[in-house]
Amino acid sequence: MKAAVVTKYGGPEVIKIIEVEKPTPKPNEVLVRIRAFGVTSGDVRIRSAKFPKGFSVPARLALGISAPRKKILGSEFSGVIEAVGSNVKGFKIGDEVIGIRVFNIYAEYVVVDVDNAILHKPKNLSFEEAAGIPFGASTALYFLNKANISAGQSILVNGASGAVGSNAVQIATAMGANVIGVCSSNNTEFVKRLGATEVIDYKQVSLKDLATKFDVVFDTVGNLKFAEYKHLLNPNGIFLQAVATFGELFAKKDHEDGKKFLTGTAPEKKEDLQVIVDLVEAGKLKPSIDKVFEFKDISQAHEYVETGRKKGSVVVRIA
Ligand SMILES: NC(=O)c1ccc[n+]([C@@H]2O[C@H](COP(=O)([O-])OP(=O)(O)OC[C@H]3O[C@@H](n4cnc5c(N)ncnc54)[C@H](OP(=O)(O)O)[C@@H]3O)[C@@H](O)[C@H]2O)c1
């Protein structure tokens, strides 16, 4: 089968499409013929080895010193089941699926344990749309759950037009929160359509000077520091940080003034994917696909994602 591999850290040009062995499913696995996958900010971080402050050494120790140990990157995908292991229940050959797992996705086929995050694809989504939702939505859900968002709360989403942000705006709205998005002026209308009641253009308004207060601030960009922006929080407010430095992972959670700083790494969980699929099927969560690339153009997809300017998700289609 064809797979896109990364044999050393570097620019988008290090990605090469080569022939590799097609995997065979173990008893609890299905073989998925991939129809589309997302190229995410996470994939770009791994390929380029550009990690948040303090993560360079731990990330290289975990992922590989001069090249990723697992050469086939990727996480979110959609496709069709082509073979099932002997113990598999609930999936059969021909089923259309959606899933998220880290690595081995930039390929024509992947094997996935059915106890992991794989489900039937929502019928109201195309393969391209389905492939562009799990990464941003599961991250957004993980953080919103951490903050225990409840109806009527106010939440400021910084980076509201990105993959994590665009899902956070919709999921928080579905939870009944009042969402205020922060993005550039190009994306104001897009973020309003996602459900934000108000949109702040960060080039016009400095959040440092903003007098409004929120129950939750969700920074999906990584440019807001808790200490400098906690004035944006109501008493007992929660600051969610999707892009923490290594030091911030161990930072104090509870502060004397009752405010909280929460960060972490979103896991790939079947239960979370189920919540996402349910929201999609209920029409409360829609994928935002910025661009679709062909498999042969995967380096261009990486180049585009690396600009940090994408609107929602970028997807690669495999014919
Ligand atoms: N902790 C976790 O488990 C976890 C999981 C997934 C992702 N992440 C991290 O979360 C971050 C965001 O991921 P993503 O996939 O959503 O990225 P993305 O899709 O590339 O989104 C970037 C967005 O940031 C916006 N932006 C750039 N500069 C900004 C600024 N100064 N103020 C406000 N918005 C700004 C851009 O909007 P404009 O073009 O409008 O500026 C763009 O839409 C990445 O660093 C990723 O590594 C963390």
Task: Describe this protein's structure.
This protein is of the alpha/beta class and 319 residues long. It has two domains: 2-133 and 287-317, Medium-chain alcohol dehydrogenases, catalytic domain (Quinone Oxidoreductase, Chain A, domain 1, Alpha-Beta Complex); 136-263, Rossmann fold (3-Layer(aba) Sandwich), CATH 3.40.50.720. It has helices at residues 41-48, 56-63, 127-131, 134-146, 163-174, 188-193, 226-229, 246-249, 270-281, 298-306; strands at 2-6, 15-19, 29-39, 76-84, 96-100, 109-113, 118-120, 154-158, 178-183, 198-201, 214-219, 233-241, 260-263, 289-294, 313-317. The strands form three sheets. Strands 3, 4, 5, 6, 7, 14 and 15 form a seven-stranded mixed β-sheet that branches. α4 (134-146) packs across α5 (163-174). The chain is globular, with a radius of gyration of 20 Å. The protein starts with a strand and ends with a strand. NADP nicotinamide-adenine-dinucleotide phosphate (NAP) binds next to α1, α4, α5 and β9.
What layout of secondary structure does this protein have?
Blueprint: E1 2-6, E2 15-19, E3 29-39, H1 41-48, H2 56-63, E4 76-84, E5 96-100, E6 109-113, E7 118-120, H3 127-131, H4 134-146, E8 154-158, H5 163-174, E9 178-183, H6 188-193, E10 198-201, E11 214-219, H7 226-229, E12 233-241, H8 246-249, E13 260-263, H9 270-281, E14 289-294, H10 298-306, E15 313-317
Parallel strand pairs: 8-9, 8-11, 9-10, 11-12, 12-13, 14-15
Antiparallel strand pairs: 1-2, 3-4, 3-6, 3-15, 4-5, 5-7
Helix pairs in contact: 4-5
Task: Please outline what is shown here.
The chain has 319 residues and is α/β, with parallel strands linked by helices.
